[in-house]
Prior knowledge:
The complex is a heterodimer.
Chain A: E1 3-14, E2 17-28, E3 32-36, H1 43-50, E4 58-63, H2 72-76, E5 79-82, H3 94-105, H4 110-119, H5 133-145, E6 151-155, H6 163-179, E7 183-188, H7 191-197, E8 200-205, E9 208-214, H8 215-219, E10 223-230, E11 243-249, E12 252-258, H9 262-272, E13 274-280, H10 284-296
Parallel strand pairs in A: 3-7, 3-8, 5-6, 6-7
Antiparallel strand pairs in A: 1-2, 1-4, 8-9, 10-12, 10-13, 11-12
Chain B: H1 4-14, H2 18-40, H3 44-56, H4 58-64, H5 72-79, H6 83-98, H7 100-105, H8 107-112, H9 120-146, H10 151-178, H11 182-208, H12 221-226, H13 237-258, H14 283-322, H15 324-333, H16 335-372, H17 374-379, H18 385-414, H19 420-428, H20 431-447, H21 457-468, H22 476-480, H23 497-520
Helix pairs in contact in B: 1-9, 2-5, 2-9, 4-11, 6-9, 6-10, 6-11, 9-10, 10-11, 10-13, 14-15, 14-16, 14-18, 15-16, 16-18, 16-19, 16-20, 16-21, 18-19, 18-20, 20-23
Amino acid sequence: xxxxxxxxxxxxxxxxxxxxxxxxxxxxxxxxxxxxxxxxxxxxxxxxxxxxxxxxxxxxxxxxxxxxxxxxxxxxxxxxxxxxxxxxxxxxxxxxxxxxxxxxxxxxxxxxxxxxxxxxxxxxxxxxxxxxxxxxxxxxxxxxxxxxxxxxxxxxxxxxxxxxxxxxxxxxxxxxxxxxxxxxxxxxxxxxxxxxxxxxxxxxxxxxxxxxxxxxxxxxxxxxxxxxxxxxxxxxxxxxxxxxxxxxxxxxxxxxxxxxxxxxxxxxxxxxxxxxxxxxxxxxxxxxxxxxxxxxx
Amino acid sequence: xxxxxxxxxxxxxxxxxxxxxxxxxxxxxxxxxxxxxxxxxxxxxxxxxxxxxxxxxxxxxxxxxxxxxxxxxxxxxxxxxxxxxxxxxxxxxxxxxxxxxxxxxxxxxxxxxxxxxxxxxxxxxxxxxxxxxxxxxxxxxxxxxxxxxxxxxxxxxxxxxxxxxxxxxxxxxxxxxxxxxxxxxxxxxxxxxxxxxxxxxxxxxxxxxxxxxxxxxxxxxxxxxxxxxxxxxxxxxxxxxxxxxxxxxxxxxxxxxxxxxxxxxxxxxxxxxxxxxxxxxxxxxxxxxxxxxxxxxxxxxxxxxxxxxxxxxxxxxxxxxxxxxxxxxxxxxxxxxxxxxxxxxxxxxxxxxxxxxxxxxxxxxxxxxxxxxxxxxxxxxxxxxxxxxxxxxxxxxxxxxxxxxxxxxxxxxxxxxxxxxxxxxxxxxxxxxxxxxxxxxxxxxxxxxxxxxxxxxxxxxxxxxxxxxxxxxxxxxxxxxxxxxxxxxxxxxxxxxxxxxxxxxxxxxxxxxxxxxxxxxxxxx
Lengths: 297, 525
């Protein structure tokens, strides 16, 4: 099976500013792939190269097996894109924009469109200029999701959506995922969203890929937080290899432990005697923060 | 009103190029006329002759307004009678740009969240525009005094332009409150300007005949300021009308502002269809939706202009046949028939230049589409860059053909004595020159997208050459820079295919280069 997106060593400069500096992005066909990075990391630039709107200075890109710059028009029939900042034509209604974009892409499913309009609670009769940011986002999402395409490229699709609509969005993407024949590239800086939806993810920073893999892979590199109430003094626990940020308050301890040092730390706790125990797996937030701290060092 | 000072500074910073450009350049234009009028009509008798012909020529009165006396200053001030329209245009656009356009783009929200009063944005836009108009007036006065003209007349002349700016700043401020989009606000402002112009023309041309409708001029701010009659009567009292109007419209705008929600207009937004009609499914259909309003507006405007020009053509002949002295002058110029012909050839040239503005505007829609992100939405569907640009350029290149044909037909209909065919041909031969200016805009858009607005310099330059080229007796090579110089003069002149083919080939080459640049570059750039 070929990769839906295969970008290697992308370099893109704007004048003196280097936006991408050897970026790697590999997305398997049929997966939901998270694309994470802080603002200005190069997510949108990467997506624009994938869409043939811009050309990289170095590196190679294949999208659905084709060259996104040379074969843009043919490839675009097979994908749908939702930009991060959706703008609509001021004098076209939302419904008109959905139909138009779908037809320009090669057709859309009217039943699916009606269902999505209902679920996202969008009034399609309003003119483009009167929609709020969230509603403009919905217009683009419905246009993309009701097209029958192989690849969805979503650039921060939930920015501007309220929490209820974010939930609807997650449900819909979850359904797409279960269908199994659609590939989704989901750029985001909302980690909970990526955590809930994505099979694999790529984290980028300052135009470079810093981490790529499944969430489980990445958790191996991270620490679990343990809070416990002990029945005796935790002698030797603080100095155990792999234990960090150890805090002791009477009979309560709180510490972080590397994944490969989890077992010896737990044995030690059992030896001391445990009255209560809370263990927190690493969240993506922490993973993210640690990744950046590591880079800064 | 907190924060007005800092907002004014912000506007001055953002418009540090464009504001001085219109305030100073427009202010300097009339000073250039002094020497040329002195050179062309050195004696009092000659000026008297010229003034007598001009004051009764409906074509001249339409373009420049009424002429009372024949002193050098009066002739210069009268000949600059088109300036108030340009000043009003700049004032409306500046006010809308810093009120509704900012509000629509969301910048106002950013500023409004800071410690800024509710009316601060409007006040800052009005103050800056009024200040720029004042600078324009001061530059004009100083330049005229520098040319040795009387001080009181020069002050009145400067006041004429400054007051126009003030009056139309108020018009722009009201327009900005009415709708939620800057584009509609601009259209409303320009419509008001058009109405003021037509009222002024109606009143002034009526005064040439029985005068039954001459009161129409007094309904128009442009009419008021022209009745200052600098260097002649130096009437100051119409200035009061303009000042009251300016204060009144500003106050109305301020009241309207408090009656509406942020981001909304006073005119309600209507609901539209929930799904697209079957026809709205191609890139061309989208381009038609985006361009049809513009095309319709320009077509109506051109048809009206054609009716005015054609109607005036009739009175040119009437004046010539009634007045023995004038008939002699016309006879020397080649007979009344030749005069009417050259009048229509002249109006065709003016129509061509205005059509070029439409062509540039329609071409730069591409840049608007790119900057707003709409282009990204279309280009990530199965629409190629060529198709996308092509559908818009269809309107930029063929739209001017439609509006010029409308103007030619309307002119011919309003002047039944003439030959409709040659009058129509006179407007249509402008097309290749229009295309060259549109093609320059395509070139800028393709190769230097961030400097696309520079494309407006071309019609501005051609306008300048048309307005002052003859009077300043510029060298031929400067006149040749304007593609309109090469267009055959019809009716009356000879039609030759060579310049038309050459201009078309130049336009095609520039367009191709621009499109090739577009294919290669980043979107958005």
